[in-house]
Amino acid sequence: MSFYDVPDGVEIRGRYDHQFAQILTRDALQFVAGLQREFQGQVRFALECRREAKKRYNSGGSPGFDPATRFIRESNWKCATVPPAVADRSVEITGPVERKMIINALNSGAKVFMADFEDALSPSWENLMKGHVNLRDAVNQTITFHDQARNRVYKLNDTIAKLFVRPRGWHLPEAHIIIDGEPAIGCLVDFGLYFYHNHAMYRSAHGAGFGPFFYLPKMENSREARIWNNVFERAERTAGIERGSIRATVLIETLPAVFQMDEILYELRDHSVGLNCGRWDYIFSYIKTFQAHPDRLLPDRVQVGMTQHFMRCYSDLLIRTCHRRGVHAMGGMAAQIPIRDNPAANEAALELVRKDKLREVRAGHDGTWAAHPGLIKPILEVFTSNMAGKANQIQTAAREDADAITEEDLVQMPRGTRSLEGLRLNTRVGIQYLAAWLTGTGSVPLYNLMEDAATAEISRVQNWQWIKYGAVLNGDGVKIRVTPELFAKVVEEEIERIKREVGLEKFTRGRYQEAGKIFAKQCTTPELDDFLTLDAYNLIVVHHPKTSARL
């Protein structure tokens, strides 16, 4: 029997595979263990601070600008100069770290591909380790994929997108790797293994002396950015590369973080390449932050777009903050996917994407996200035709008008209506996403949109909020109050609809009934779970007999 060769204090409980062993080397695991041992206490403190903030919000409080850090917001300072290799980020594509996806995304014509270990990936042992093998091969430009069903071999073009990697959030463990008797911190595993194996090749072949590049998710406070900065500095020292080589874009996707954007950039000022509007998670966070506020029941999620006042202010303030500090202000996700069997509907969807991206570029964003390669060309056309031939708008779109945005602007209730169809859609999307996630898929096409954990989270917390406070819905012109009994009936009916839509064979093979039970439980629990995936994670952990040894 083969074993992983591990350093003292480290145990691997995932399946042994000779390819995985090339990633899980003794030296790489020693590097990850060093990160965990140095920063575990800081991470625990940051998560405890989140819990304390949650108590304040649940007691009637609201997030706001911190008076103690006003000097950072009001001082004139800049982040380090943007590396030339990533000056143009006009359109970025995102997706999980799957082999075929990586090749298609790097070849898509996008300027950047964000390879995702977070919301677009179900973090099974197989997915994670294959993802690291795939990224190593991508950085080495040796990655290929043989699609046997199509008898087609995929390989990289001569010109490819710049690779960014998104590790998991601070809150997620990695239960297959045990360090000093405790599960590893998931994001330190993701970052550590990728950085250790790829920093040298990435800097020389892709980053023109800079890199690797990262996206950082789910932060709520600048103290969490400080931990990442310290992680980066330790990694740079260990690798013997220049301070400031590693660069990262932070997703502003929690409501508390919008009040900390200057402070987050300040903590990462030597390692920052901007902020991004993670708008779906941001809506999820708005509901979660105000979960104890019955006066903040949101309308149907499809009505909460970037034209809502609080969302527009969030975007405008992010642009102002980033450009004042000399870095990119990235726009939000276009989740549409091509509707191949209906050209008219496809063109209508593309027109919505164009309008959304035109709004972003005219507001001052330097680039934006797309979920599908079919969107790259039309989005690129919108951005390039509105940026006067420049790689970005950092120097040309100051947005000083956004200085007038207040705390009240950033938390203003969105306007709209709540409907029974909204409750049904939330339920249908949530159950189907969770069923896919449980079977190893984290990025799921549903109703012509590419859904990931963020949209499933909105569905879950909005249902919970409506049930908790007995929201009144408009159903076929009749006012209906949401009750646990009504919701149970909706779950039952939507599972039957899912069965009809996907077909009996797929439904039987899938985990839809199990997903329905989990989703219903999370929507009706007295205390709202912080994350859908955190609660469900143990259902995809598979421990194997002893697969590691100190040789």
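[next item in queue]
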Amino acid sequence: MKPIPWIRCTLGLLLLCTADADSGRKPNFVFMMVDDLGIGDLGCYGNTTLRTPNIDRLALEGVKLTQHIAAAPLCTPSRAAFLTGRYPIRSGMAAHGRMGVFLFSASSGGLPEEEITFAKAVKEQGYSTAVIGKWHLGLNCEDSADHCHHPNSLGFDYFYGTIMTHLRDCQPGHGSVLYFVHAYIPYKALSIGLVSLALLHIRGMITVTRRVVFGFLVLVGVVVSLFGVLVYTFPNLNCFVMRGAEIVEQPYTSENLTQRMTSEAIEFLERYVNSERPFLLFFSFLQVHTGLFASRLFRGRSQHGLYGDAVMEVDWSVGQIMHTLERLNLKENTLVYMTSDQGPHLEEISIHGEMHGGYSGIYKAGKSTNWEGGIRIPGILHWPGVLPAGKVIDEPTSNMDIFPTVLNLAGASIPRDRVIDGHDLLPLLQGQVERSEHEFMFHYCNAQLNAIRWHPPNSNAIWKAFFFTPDFYPENSSACFHTHICFCIKPYVTFHDPPLLYDLSKDRSESTPLSPDTEPQFYSVLEVIRAAVSRHAQSLKPVPVQVSPLQIVWKPWLQPCCSSLSQLCTCERDHQIEKLRNKLKKE
């Protein structure tokens, strides 16, 4: 029997009032998102060889979600969805081509100011808001200082971190992400064009002069030279740390970044010991994205090389944040959420041949795919006295659900002028209801609808239909090693008609697709799914695409620079660096 809605709301309010009776204030929020962390990397999700005691304790004392789904399998769109509670295609943060994320700090695309983030909504309710760590949602629009996509323009009072993601280029000795540009070069079309040109010349149908050949070779030389300059300057132009609107280190030294950002987060929390103002802190780790790094205290400590060392450092940082909340007597009035932005990057191999990607556990594939390994992420929520300890929930939930959950707890109104795809998690977390409000979930690969999940009412089945799937290489693998990441467009995918159908309640690893012979409901399930896709498509409105080739390309006039281009934009004026140096000297 389902609870009557008004009883459900009353129970929730009573629990919140009890939790806040001593403080007389709204709850605080601390969100921790790890970059590219696999669900199989954590002890609380089954890993027995990688130690994550602090995250495991968080799960033991809180609620663990085992079917928590990222709204996209890539960093930029997933983070946009997390902040707004909306599928990224609704905000223009889903690409129509191969590249689905920002590679340059001087791109003009980004999360539009018109979008309502949970930070913007709670700020209007008197909250102090901060994001520390990775942003990856754009910076400028028309000049190098307009900061139209900066965290400050999207509801965050305070920012300390990186505008871009952490890449190989930011870590000396790890090569360059630009070396994988070959995956974007149309070799087949170029080869056919050159061969055709040569045959036409040989047959006398056209004449190719030496001057034309020489000009072509010069052009190739110029392109190769410019590419070399781009690789050389990439770290200086894209790997920098900002405090607010100011660049305080360019390029940054990555080794101790997690230590510094943890220290910054602790300083932020310490400001609210005796404050009546509630806060929201979004701690967005740069780890465990490549190029991998770990500080001296953690290098060589795990059984899984540098990747394992980085995961252990993340776990240490989570422990520091939780210890600080306890020390400051903030723990009882703070909702803590820990997650990843999507699955692990399985194709990541270092220049020395070491595997630098994470682990999906029993789930298939990883980052950039909508197989479960690419979108099923850790989801841990902790709030003593409000959320039950040790509870495990296997209902479908989404990282978009954080948006309405936060707004309802903070007393903010859910926007009515736009579609919000997330649902308030609190009734499910507290046991007021047993089923998720997500009957359907739509899994996008960039702007292409890749798959759909259906959890029918009054049924334990979780159907998942794929309209197309990536072509793995090698074929017997579950990754795309030939392109370094799986793509969403031809010729890198195979389309399915009828769609591939799985029942995740019986086949979590997506090992055997169903057929009309093995599943009597095969066609009826697909009929319901197609109807849901049609209704969903009608809810979409055209918006400017923020991740188009024109928006993501490097624009010199948008380049952030703390000194001058002649000095390769070099500077170091972050007090956290000196603070850490003094700490290391004492040790």
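[queue empty]
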